[in-house]
Fold this sequence. Notes:
The chain is mainly β. 0% of the residues lie in helices and 55% in strands. The protein has no helices and eleven strands. It has strands at residues 2-6, 9-12, 17-24, 32-38, 44-51, 58-59, 67-72, 77-82, 91-98, 103-105, 109-114. Strands 2, 4, 5, 6, 9, 10 and 11 form a seven-stranded mixed beta sheet that branches. It has a four-stranded antiparallel beta sheet with strand order 1-3-8-7, with no helix packed on it. The N and C termini lie far apart (38 Å). The mean pLDDT is 94.
Amino acid sequence: VQLQAFGGGSVQAGGSHGLSCAYSGDTFRGYALGWFRRVLGKEREFVAAINWRGEGTYYANFAKGRFTISPDNYKNTVNLQMDSLKPEDTAVYYCNAQGDSVEYWGQGTEVTVSS
């Protein structure tokens, strides 16, 4: 099983940026697909999650109204669209897949938001 995150980069505050996570090695049926992030000096925190069917989205409070998570089951990706970015969104973002008894992580991809 492999999760690989793409799309890190730099963006100015107020701008938008998208991340993508490609998953392979399993059907991921029944999984929750999500994104977490680690801000420098802080613990990794939940950002957003969705079930593999694209139903039942969940967002951290800071992400509500600004971030959108969406799966693409044809491409086997889960995407995170981030709008109205703030400097405090600067972090390493990780994708995640959780099954009933297993959990997988992708490598992080860094997003820097400059003021």
